[in-house]
Batch of 3 targets.
Target 1
Amino acid sequence: MNDDTISIETDFNAPLEKVWAAWTEPHLLLKWFGSDPNGKGLRATMSVQVGGTYEITFQDSNGTQHTCMGKYLIVEKNKILSFTWEWKNEPGLESLVTITFNPKQRKTSMIFEHRNVGFASAHNYLAGWEATFSKLERMLSDISLQ
């Protein structure tokens, strides 16, 4: 690993299918995406298939909006999700996210890697993703996907 790669391994107290759905279903993703604990998701368009694209807009509690977008490179249901990442306000600074999902009894182990975040970005990716995954954990404990 080098300085422009963020790696986070975490376990969620939720079944694999629930964690996968949180990453791949727009209505669920909008409930947790974004690092501000009091922020909210605004819009998400996602075509979760190899070559498909996504665009997600979320808002911080102070009203600041952020939009990220990219293209899906690997989609193996309940196993691996990999996609490019670019901020709308930082065009040309493309990075790569790869998430590996592993069942762990009634829990899910998630290995998250964000590569090539670069040094030109104004975003603190490690703090941002850690805060975002805290929101994901809360959302997973609150929802039922039956």
Target 2
Amino acid sequence: METIGVIPARWGSTRFPGKSLAMLGGKPVIRWVYERAGQARRLASLAVATDDERIRTAVEAFGGRVVMTKNTHPSGTDRVAEAIGGMKEGVAVNIQGDEPFVDPALIDSLVGAMEADESWDMATAAVPIRDRTELNDPSVVKVVWDAENRALFFSRSVIPFDRDHGYDTCDALYWRHLGIYAYRIGFLRRLVSTPPCRTENVEKLEQLRALHIGARIKVLEAASAGIGIDTPGDLARAGEMLMSAAGGRVKR
């Protein structure tokens, strides 16, 4: 089964324009993502998908592969679908371009789940929520699943609702969805050709469109949530993590 990793990267982030090229430990964020994803053993190929020449130049400068895509895509998923070109079968992994510490083992696990059972249309990941601040944060997407680890629903709200105890505990009940996906190629084509559904429009979560059209989405338990670079503050925290890990020897 052919597998390809695609890292969508655009310049025009609302909260942090140009974050893909923001410097972290002496390297642009997109290079961290590319090098970490490149350590995954189950990817046959890896590429950055962008519509911006500045990002293209930076990626090619460190030897990365780039696929130029249209500048009209509404989501990273649509960009991935264009970037895989004429692939008819196999698995495409959508790797967030703002996750500098993405876990290569998680990428391998997602691909492995898709290879082990062809009934899955998609695979994604989640980690336990231990902090009530995250629990009540609408930017932290929650997920619930069934006995097969098949996703039942995703929401920015707190799900499930604990009728008897409210939200006094987070222990083993609430799960944070991580924005990494492995898609069966045929299903990816179907997904991007389907208009958004009502729940997607309300929650602003495109994975709800996948559920709406009957997707079987496998949810894997990840080791950690990592850190996404959505704001300059996130970049500073990522830099502090690097400094701490290297004993203060990493350049900012």
Target 3
Amino acid sequence: MSTKKINKTNDFANTVHQLVNQIAKNDQVYEKACVDFFGVTSSQGGTILALPIDHILKMNELSTAMGVDSSTMTRMIDQLVDKGLVNRQAGEKDRRLVHIGLTTTGKKLHKELAGALQKFYQDSLDRIPEGERETIIKSMVTVNNAIGKGLEECCKRYCKR
């Protein structure tokens, strides 16, 4: 990408959009390769990483944390139970409440996945000079906050029919 000065708001928005998409794509490519290595899908790996190592979550808490509906989460948990990575238990007082926790194998996978992802980002981002890191973080926070504010009103403002 050219380092030419971007003056127009439209050009700036397009460039930021392209860079955000490319960063997200790079992240997805790495995560897919990583979880494939460990024998799970990206969604399964994400679910494993969303579960705490030291305690259980209710199914609805996990669904909310993952941003998926409960039927999708139920199918995912079924797959992870079949692989021996999570346990599922109905609540003692209310059997409609389902509790999800990692098995010993699931905890080991969680640690391996989290460690591999952390090491990848450390090694990749170590290429950025220390003197530039704070500026990059501030800029990324600014971009994230601006996009977040846009999301607050996105459909009302931008998706008119």
